[in-house]
Specification:
By secondary structure, the chain is α+β, with helices and mostly antiparallel strands. The relative contact order is 0.11.
Amino acid sequence: MKKSACLLVLLLSLVIVKAQVPDKSWWTFSYAEKPTGSSLLDLRYLNEHFAGENGFIRLSTDCNSFVNGKGKEIRFWACNGGSLAKDFDDKKLDSLARFLAKMGVNLIRYHGAINPKGKNTKITDVDTTEARNIWRCVAAMKKQGIYTVISPFWPANGHMGGWIPAEWGIDGYSGKDDMWAVLYFNDKLKEGYKAWIKYLYTTPNPYTKVALKDEPAVAIIQVENEDSPFFWTMSAIKPALAKMVGVQFSKWLRARYGPSADIKDTMTLVPIYEFTIPPRANVKNRLHDQVEFYTESQRAFYDDMVHYYRDVLGCRQLINGNNWRTASQSRLLDLERWTNSGAGVIAVNKYFDPQHKGGPNVGWRVDPGDFYGAPSALKNPADLPTNIKHVAGHPMMVTESGWNLPNRYQTEGALLVAAYGGLSGLDAYFWFTPTAVNYMQQPYFTFLNIKGQHPMTRWSTSTPGEIGMFPANALIQRLGYVKQANAVQEQRTMKSMLNREIPPIFEEQSFDPNRDFVVSTNKDQGKLSPLIFLTGGVTTTYGSKVDTAFVSPKLAQLINIKDAKVSSITGEQELDYKSGIFTLNTPQAKAVTGFLNLKKVFTLGDVTIQSDNEYATIEVVSMDGQSTGRSKKILVQVGTIFRPTGWNEEATTITSNNKQLTGFKITNTGKMPWLGMPANGGISLKNKLIKKATQLDVAGYAVKKLDLLADGAGVSFQLPVDAYYILLER
């Protein structure tokens, strides 16, 4: 290697491992509602006067999206957080609802568990406290025009209450056992589940006097959260359940093939690992049968639940079965989605991982001594949570997601979701999860004090970099500022799916930046690169007569491997994944995010954004539906990097799962308040109607007027170092 090349590699490595520690130039992030005056940034007006004002949420004519009861298209900007009702009194819950509406949210998910908890409970008992909290949540959100999705069950033991008593009669399960897959095969648990939801949906809500089954403010029912016989958890089921499933499989085989000496009364199950690899000769036929048995069993379960909700309980809401992934996304995910397709809505949980590694608490909090890799989705486009195959004829939701802490590049997340979600037709994306009434009161566990530090919850979206970036992107999503377009239309036969054949494109596919977008060398890879998800939507149809995939002929021009750039079919999105810079250019929304000082100047039609920031997200979004060149009211939103006061880290390399990861060791998690890296740049806008620029604080209240430099074409101004929201008006 030449000396100059070695120097370049060294410089790049130094950039990669640079620690991000706040210094005295960073500004203090402070949120405070004022007792008088009005916030100039309040998106509550986008919501209905009350959720369900226009009737129940329904499917559109083509069944691919949502409409309200009057048939008008409705778009959602969503988050989790309804379960905060467990910890919030009525006043705090009302405050949370008002805050979320202000930030642009019109759909929330209550992720809970209404099963009974602890000893001496019958399986048909109900956790009435949890049911009451769900009712409270629906009522509070309804008043602010926010619809609710209810997820009432998760078989993880924490949600089950940590104890499965003998009185339940679930053979082989007691103590703190997880109940993965039990609901699909055990009639006793099905009976219990139906008793729980009957109570929840048919009892009049004491806060609204309306039973949930008749409540249009409840938009969607989710049968359960994160479970599937096609996931790795199937390898950890208890022997008693394995025997029960083996008996059911035996009956299924005899119904299919007739009596046979090879079919035992209790069949031994092929391990889930075999589902993830090409079929081996010694298990090929049995594996195929077991795959089909699991598929039919899970589909029958969800179809039965849809029937029970709809025809027995009389629920009028849309229904989603589940939201989980599989042990092999290439071989099994389409089967998983097909089993859910008897319900109207398809969903998945999918996060952008900060490569967070640590001790026993790493699953839920960030501690001193933990490691994180600091990836940006802009340089890892295959990992975008919006890279999803949509099932034709069904709305698609991501019911849990986020750029989890300690990710330093959170501000890119909301923009990428709005931009690529709009392009692909994603119907709802739920950020997980608010942890306080606003985004200043946590995300620390203040009861845990480690030498003056307060460990963060990794799951909080109550941060300046996530929930603080909602307003501009809620406008983009809900007002339809991004054009939708398809890049791939796939059709799959049931035969190929049951044979676990790998489709041309699938989710969570690895990406090799040195290859063209069509690859075919690896048997475990599809023929199409995941970069295609960035060009347009990918849809699939199940049950066709032949396997086909129509690919837009424009893709060869849209994916530029040499320059590491991907453009959308619509021409509105472009990603330079080498530099880590993304631009959105629609008539009503101009935005850029990433490592901006590598390019500095971005001309997006009538808007020019200049920035010397190492990293920033800058958006210019119309608030009145007009183009940015003709709008009379425009929101400028700026997000950089945010860290707690006293945060400290040092560059390091670790080995995890036999891989070397370069990142950072956290030496101090700091304390509140948040600090923001200073903004460094300016905006030029070709709009003669704009006469006034007002800097707003983080709660949306006016701070000061900014100097506008006018010329014959429009106006320009410099960004204050503490820029966050700026309102441009006539």
